[in-house]
Specification:
Length: 251
Amino acid sequence: MSHHIVEVKDLTYVYPDGTPGIRNISFRVIHGESVAIIGPNGAGKSTLLLHLNGYLTPASGFVRIGDLPLTGGTLREIRRTVGMIFQDPDDQLFMPTIYDDVAFGPHNLGIPRDEIERRVLSALSRMGIEHLRDKPPYRLSAGEKRRAAIATVLSMIPDILVMDEPSTGLDPVGRRELIALLKEFTHTKIIATHDLDLVADLCERTIVLDGGEIRADGPTSGIFRNEELLRECHMEKPLSMQGCPVCSPAK
């Protein structure tokens, strides 16, 4: 299962205006791990994720997916393996209908028409949006767009899921359904999010970014108990760990 492994080594990225984005980042994710990337706004979370599918090219360092270093020559194969859910669903929805969007990836892989149909219907069903198949993306609500964007990745049947703020725009029911769906995905998951309760539900390991650098990498439970670290990185414990302010008022 080496193709499910993600390795980042000494990764550095500088924005076009010369501002450092991420600095000398290294970590390794093995098959089946669910890893959260958390940190304040501007920490470098999205920038890091965009390197895992080749959308950004590092100034130095490298990314390896399984046995393949991420290069121009391996990009197509790696994008078959790594499914990327962007922070903004509009970056993934550009076809005339939602059905066309969800079918786009499998079609470009040369998958037979019958298999494309099966994959699309399965992805739409899993996200509860079969009724939206013939709708244009611009007619959808923010939550519906989020579900559709996730469906475009599920139809690719990736070995690794990389997600940038996947719960944004979802109502409470949609969020619970997303968590249940991601629990069913037993392969590798890397999730960048501000939703720390989602992290507590899904990820046994958490990497903390701040200022483009890794501040901590370890078991999620330990990270969330480290109040000093969270405070220094402008974060708070998940709501589920804060207790009820009415039942247990501060003294």
